[in-house]
User: Fold this.
Amino acid sequence: MSSFANLKRGRSDLAKLTKAIEATSQPAEAGSKDDTRFWQPEVDKAGNGMAVIRFLPAPAADGDDALPWVRVFSHGFQGPGGWFIDNCLTTVNEKCPVCEHNSTLWNSGIEANKEIARKQKRRLNYIANVYVVSDPSNPENEGQIRIYKFGKKIFDKITEAMNPEFADETPVNPFDMWEGANFKLKIRNVEGYRNYDKSEFAEKSALLDGDDAKLEALWKQEHSLKEFLEPKHFKAYDLLKTRLDKVLGFEGDVAPKSKAIDAVVENFHDAELAALDTKIAVSEDDDDLNYFKSLAQ
Ligand SMILES: [Zn+2]
Assistant:
Protein backbone atom coordinates (compact mmCIF):
# COMPACT_ATOMS: atom_id res chain seq x y z
CA MET A 1 0.00 0.00 0.00
CA SER A 2 1.27 3.44 -0.72
CA SER A 3 0.24 6.36 1.44
CA PHE A 4 -2.02 9.19 0.39
CA ALA A 5 0.46 11.76 1.67
CA ASN A 6 3.13 10.32 -0.61
CA LEU A 7 0.71 10.41 -3.51
CA LYS A 8 0.00 14.08 -3.01
CA ARG A 9 3.65 14.97 -2.47
CA GLY A 10 5.04 13.01 -5.39
CA ARG A 11 2.25 13.62 -7.83
CA SER A 12 4.04 15.95 -10.18
CA ASP A 13 6.59 13.31 -10.98
CA LEU A 14 6.15 13.66 -14.72
CA ALA A 15 9.67 12.45 -15.32
CA LYS A 16 8.83 9.06 -13.87
CA LEU A 17 5.79 8.67 -16.10
CA THR A 18 7.61 9.90 -19.17
CA LYS A 19 10.44 7.48 -18.54
CA ALA A 20 7.99 4.63 -18.21
CA ILE A 21 6.43 5.52 -21.54
CA GLU A 22 9.78 5.67 -23.25
CA ALA A 23 10.88 2.32 -21.92
CA THR A 24 10.00 -0.45 -24.31
CA SER A 25 8.72 -3.01 -21.91
CA GLN A 26 6.01 -4.67 -19.93
CA PRO A 27 2.45 -4.87 -19.04
CA ALA A 28 -0.91 -6.59 -19.41
CA GLU A 29 -4.15 -7.72 -21.01
CA ALA A 30 -7.55 -8.86 -19.86
CA GLY A 31 -10.79 -10.16 -21.17
CA SER A 32 -13.13 -7.27 -20.68
CA LYS A 33 -16.48 -8.23 -22.11
CA ASP A 34 -18.05 -9.83 -19.04
CA ASP A 35 -16.01 -7.98 -16.47
CA THR A 36 -18.27 -5.33 -14.93
CA ARG A 37 -15.27 -3.41 -13.63
CA PHE A 38 -14.64 -2.28 -17.19
CA TRP A 39 -16.20 0.80 -18.70
CA GLN A 40 -16.59 1.64 -22.37
CA PRO A 41 -18.21 4.68 -23.93
CA GLU A 42 -21.34 3.89 -25.87
CA VAL A 43 -21.93 5.09 -29.41
CA ASP A 44 -25.22 5.77 -31.17
CA LYS A 45 -26.37 4.12 -34.38
CA ALA A 46 -24.33 6.54 -36.42
CA GLY A 47 -21.25 5.54 -34.43
CA ASN A 48 -20.92 8.80 -32.52
CA GLY A 49 -20.44 9.03 -28.78
CA MET A 50 -19.23 11.32 -26.06
CA ALA A 51 -18.27 10.97 -22.42
CA VAL A 52 -16.09 12.74 -19.88
CA ILE A 53 -13.69 10.76 -17.76
CA ARG A 54 -10.84 11.48 -15.40
CA PHE A 55 -7.75 9.28 -15.45
CA LEU A 56 -6.77 8.32 -11.91
CA PRO A 57 -3.37 7.84 -10.28
CA ALA A 58 -1.89 4.40 -9.66
CA PRO A 59 -4.13 2.54 -7.21
CA ALA A 60 -3.19 2.44 -3.54
CA ALA A 61 -3.35 -1.33 -3.72
CA ASP A 62 -0.53 -1.55 -6.28
CA GLY A 63 2.15 0.07 -4.11
CA ASP A 64 4.45 3.08 -4.47
CA ASP A 65 6.25 2.05 -7.63
CA ALA A 66 3.12 1.34 -9.63
CA LEU A 67 2.19 3.33 -12.71
CA PRO A 68 -1.32 4.62 -13.38
CA TRP A 69 -1.62 2.21 -16.31
CA VAL A 70 -0.54 -1.21 -17.48
CA ARG A 71 0.22 -2.20 -21.06
CA VAL A 72 -1.23 -5.33 -22.58
CA PHE A 73 -0.43 -6.96 -25.90
CA SER A 74 -2.83 -9.31 -27.63
CA HIS A 75 -3.35 -11.13 -30.91
CA GLY A 76 -6.63 -11.46 -32.79
CA PHE A 77 -6.79 -12.96 -36.26
CA GLN A 78 -8.33 -15.71 -38.33
CA GLY A 79 -6.45 -18.50 -40.07
CA PRO A 80 -7.60 -21.50 -42.09
CA GLY A 81 -8.12 -23.43 -38.84
CA GLY A 82 -10.19 -20.81 -37.00
CA TRP A 83 -9.66 -17.81 -34.75
CA PHE A 84 -6.73 -16.96 -32.57
CA ILE A 85 -7.76 -14.45 -29.91
CA ASP A 86 -5.48 -14.37 -26.90
CA ASN A 87 -3.15 -12.30 -24.81
CA CYS A 88 0.43 -12.11 -26.02
CA LEU A 89 3.06 -13.45 -23.64
CA THR A 90 5.45 -10.60 -24.47
CA THR A 91 3.20 -8.54 -22.17
CA VAL A 92 4.91 -10.27 -19.27
CA ASN A 93 8.32 -10.47 -20.97
CA GLU A 94 7.98 -14.05 -22.05
CA LYS A 95 8.39 -15.60 -25.49
CA CYS A 96 5.24 -15.64 -27.58
CA PRO A 97 4.81 -18.27 -30.31
CA VAL A 98 2.78 -15.89 -32.49
CA CYS A 99 5.36 -13.11 -32.34
CA GLU A 100 8.08 -15.65 -33.10
CA HIS A 101 6.15 -16.90 -36.08
CA ASN A 102 5.55 -13.34 -37.29
CA SER A 103 9.25 -12.65 -37.05
CA THR A 104 9.97 -15.66 -39.25
CA LEU A 105 7.39 -14.55 -41.77
CA TRP A 106 8.71 -11.01 -41.81
CA ASN A 107 12.33 -12.04 -42.12
CA SER A 108 11.55 -14.29 -45.07
CA GLY A 109 11.36 -11.07 -47.08
CA ILE A 110 8.45 -12.48 -49.08
CA GLU A 111 5.73 -9.87 -49.50
CA ALA A 112 2.86 -12.35 -49.00
CA ASN A 113 4.44 -13.49 -45.72
CA LYS A 114 4.88 -9.91 -44.57
CA GLU A 115 1.19 -9.31 -45.22
CA ILE A 116 0.30 -12.26 -42.98
CA ALA A 117 2.63 -10.95 -40.27
CA ARG A 118 0.84 -7.60 -40.42
CA LYS A 119 -2.52 -9.30 -39.96
CA GLN A 120 -1.31 -11.35 -36.99
CA LYS A 121 0.75 -8.71 -35.24
CA ARG A 122 0.44 -8.04 -31.56
CA ARG A 123 -1.81 -5.12 -30.67
CA LEU A 124 -1.17 -2.81 -27.79
CA ASN A 125 -3.76 -1.70 -25.29
CA TYR A 126 -3.57 0.22 -22.06
CA ILE A 127 -5.59 -0.32 -18.92
CA ALA A 128 -6.19 2.43 -16.36
CA ASN A 129 -8.61 3.42 -13.62
CA VAL A 130 -10.97 6.23 -14.54
CA TYR A 131 -13.57 8.24 -12.70
CA VAL A 132 -16.63 8.59 -14.91
CA VAL A 133 -17.54 12.29 -14.83
CA SER A 134 -20.22 12.26 -17.51
CA ASP A 135 -21.74 9.40 -19.46
CA PRO A 136 -24.89 10.66 -21.19
CA SER A 137 -25.75 7.24 -22.67
CA ASN A 138 -25.44 5.48 -19.31
CA PRO A 139 -25.75 8.09 -16.55
CA GLU A 140 -25.76 5.36 -13.89
CA ASN A 141 -22.00 5.09 -14.48
CA GLU A 142 -21.37 8.67 -13.41
CA GLY A 143 -19.41 9.02 -10.19
CA GLN A 144 -18.07 5.48 -10.46
CA ILE A 145 -14.50 4.22 -10.61
CA ARG A 146 -14.11 1.88 -13.53
CA ILE A 147 -11.37 0.31 -15.56
CA TYR A 148 -10.90 1.67 -19.05
CA LYS A 149 -9.05 -0.19 -21.77
CA PHE A 150 -7.86 1.98 -24.62
CA GLY A 151 -5.52 2.05 -27.57
CA LYS A 152 -2.55 4.00 -28.82
CA LYS A 153 -4.54 7.00 -30.05
CA ILE A 154 -5.80 7.89 -26.59
CA PHE A 155 -2.47 7.11 -24.97
CA ASP A 156 -0.89 9.54 -27.45
CA LYS A 157 -3.25 12.24 -26.18
CA ILE A 158 -2.06 11.53 -22.65
CA THR A 159 1.58 11.72 -23.70
CA GLU A 160 0.94 14.98 -25.55
CA ALA A 161 -0.62 16.49 -22.43
CA MET A 162 2.47 15.51 -20.46
CA ASN A 163 4.89 16.73 -23.14
CA PRO A 164 3.17 19.52 -25.05
CA GLU A 165 4.50 20.35 -28.49
CA PHE A 166 4.59 24.12 -28.06
CA ALA A 167 6.48 26.28 -25.57
CA ASP A 168 3.38 28.22 -24.51
CA GLU A 169 1.64 25.08 -23.29
CA THR A 170 2.08 23.85 -19.73
CA PRO A 171 2.69 20.13 -19.17
CA VAL A 172 -0.19 18.47 -17.39
CA ASN A 173 -0.16 15.16 -15.60
CA PRO A 174 -3.59 13.81 -16.54
CA PHE A 175 -3.43 11.33 -13.65
CA ASP A 176 -3.13 14.08 -11.02
CA MET A 177 -6.29 14.41 -8.93
CA TRP A 178 -5.58 18.04 -8.01
CA GLU A 179 -3.92 19.55 -11.05
CA GLY A 180 -4.85 17.13 -13.80
CA ALA A 181 -7.67 17.52 -16.28
CA ASN A 182 -10.85 15.78 -17.35
CA PHE A 183 -10.71 13.94 -20.65
CA LYS A 184 -13.47 14.57 -23.16
CA LEU A 185 -13.88 11.42 -25.19
CA LYS A 186 -15.36 12.21 -28.56
CA ILE A 187 -15.98 9.28 -30.83
CA ARG A 188 -16.91 9.41 -34.48
CA ASN A 189 -17.39 6.74 -37.08
CA VAL A 190 -14.79 7.18 -39.78
CA GLU A 191 -14.98 4.64 -42.60
CA GLY A 192 -16.49 2.03 -40.32
CA TYR A 193 -13.99 2.45 -37.50
CA ARG A 194 -14.17 4.23 -34.19
CA ASN A 195 -12.15 7.40 -34.42
CA TYR A 196 -10.94 9.31 -31.35
CA ASP A 197 -9.17 12.21 -33.06
CA LYS A 198 -11.54 14.85 -31.66
CA SER A 199 -11.03 13.75 -28.05
CA GLU A 200 -9.21 16.23 -25.85
CA PHE A 201 -8.34 17.23 -22.31
CA ALA A 202 -10.37 19.98 -20.70
CA GLU A 203 -8.81 22.83 -18.75
CA LYS A 204 -6.88 21.93 -15.62
CA SER A 205 -9.18 21.28 -12.69
CA ALA A 206 -9.25 19.53 -9.34
CA LEU A 207 -11.30 16.36 -9.19
CA LEU A 208 -14.22 16.53 -6.70
CA ASP A 209 -13.26 20.15 -5.94
CA GLY A 210 -9.96 18.94 -4.52
CA ASP A 211 -11.60 17.58 -1.38
CA ASP A 212 -8.80 15.46 0.08
CA ALA A 213 -11.08 13.25 2.17
CA LYS A 214 -13.18 12.36 -0.87
CA LEU A 215 -10.15 11.93 -3.09
CA GLU A 216 -8.45 9.62 -0.64
CA ALA A 217 -11.56 7.47 -0.42
CA LEU A 218 -11.75 7.40 -4.20
CA TRP A 219 -8.10 6.46 -4.56
CA LYS A 220 -8.46 3.58 -2.14
CA GLN A 221 -11.36 2.20 -4.14
CA GLU A 222 -9.35 1.99 -7.35
CA HIS A 223 -8.99 -1.42 -8.91
CA SER A 224 -5.60 -3.10 -8.92
CA LEU A 225 -3.98 -2.93 -12.33
CA LYS A 226 -1.14 -5.30 -11.47
CA GLU A 227 -3.79 -7.97 -11.36
CA PHE A 228 -3.95 -7.89 -15.16
CA LEU A 229 -0.36 -9.10 -15.34
CA GLU A 230 -1.05 -12.17 -13.25
CA PRO A 231 -0.46 -15.58 -14.84
CA LYS A 232 -4.19 -16.35 -14.90
CA HIS A 233 -4.57 -13.93 -17.79
CA PHE A 234 -1.99 -15.71 -19.92
CA LYS A 235 -1.90 -19.15 -21.45
CA ALA A 236 1.32 -21.14 -21.38
CA TYR A 237 3.63 -21.02 -24.41
CA ASP A 238 2.91 -24.62 -25.41
CA LEU A 239 -0.84 -24.11 -25.26
CA LEU A 240 -0.61 -21.01 -27.41
CA LYS A 241 1.69 -22.81 -29.82
CA THR A 242 -0.73 -25.70 -30.19
CA ARG A 243 -3.58 -23.28 -30.80
CA LEU A 244 -1.50 -21.31 -33.30
CA ASP A 245 -0.61 -24.46 -35.26
CA LYS A 246 -4.29 -25.38 -35.38
CA VAL A 247 -5.36 -21.91 -36.51
CA LEU A 248 -2.66 -21.81 -39.16
CA GLY A 249 -3.64 -25.27 -40.36
CA PHE A 250 -0.29 -26.78 -39.43
CA GLU A 251 -1.81 -29.78 -37.73
CA GLY A 252 -0.41 -33.01 -39.08
CA ASP A 253 2.32 -30.96 -40.65
CA VAL A 254 3.70 -29.58 -37.45
CA ALA A 255 7.24 -30.87 -37.48
CA PRO A 256 8.68 -29.23 -40.61
CA LYS A 257 7.12 -25.82 -39.96
CA SER A 258 8.08 -25.79 -36.30
CA LYS A 259 11.64 -26.67 -37.20
CA ALA A 260 11.75 -23.82 -39.65
CA ILE A 261 10.49 -21.46 -36.99
CA ASP A 262 12.92 -22.70 -34.37
CA ALA A 263 15.80 -22.32 -36.78
CA VAL A 264 15.13 -18.64 -37.31
CA VAL A 265 13.88 -17.58 -33.91
CA GLU A 266 16.26 -18.30 -31.12
CA ASN A 267 16.64 -15.28 -28.93
CA PHE A 268 13.84 -12.84 -28.86
CA HIS A 269 14.34 -9.46 -27.30
CA ASP A 270 11.99 -6.60 -26.57
CA ALA A 271 13.95 -4.29 -28.81
CA GLU A 272 13.54 -6.64 -31.75
CA LEU A 273 9.86 -6.94 -31.04
CA ALA A 274 9.47 -3.20 -30.88
CA ALA A 275 11.38 -2.87 -34.14
CA LEU A 276 9.13 -5.47 -35.70
CA ASP A 277 6.05 -3.63 -34.42
CA THR A 278 7.27 -0.47 -36.06
CA LYS A 279 8.06 -2.20 -39.31
CA ILE A 280 4.76 -3.98 -39.59
CA ALA A 281 2.65 -1.20 -38.14
CA VAL A 282 -0.58 -0.73 -40.01
CA SER A 283 -3.19 1.80 -38.95
CA GLU A 284 -3.01 2.22 -35.19
CA ASP A 285 -6.40 3.85 -35.12
CA ASP A 286 -8.16 0.61 -34.57
CA ASP A 287 -9.99 0.43 -31.35
CA ASP A 288 -9.70 -2.98 -29.80
CA LEU A 289 -13.39 -3.58 -29.33
CA ASN A 290 -14.10 -2.33 -32.77
CA TYR A 291 -11.44 -4.55 -34.14
CA PHE A 292 -12.78 -7.67 -32.52
CA LYS A 293 -16.29 -6.73 -33.56
CA SER A 294 -15.18 -6.53 -37.15
CA LEU A 295 -13.48 -9.89 -36.75
CA ALA A 296 -16.65 -11.49 -35.55
CA GLN A 297 -18.68 -10.31 -38.53
ZN1 LIG B 1 2.77 -12.24 -29.29
Remarks:
- The chain has ten helices and nine strands.
- The beta strands are 38-39, 49-55, 69-79, 82-87, 123-134, 145-150, 181-190, 193-195, 200-204.
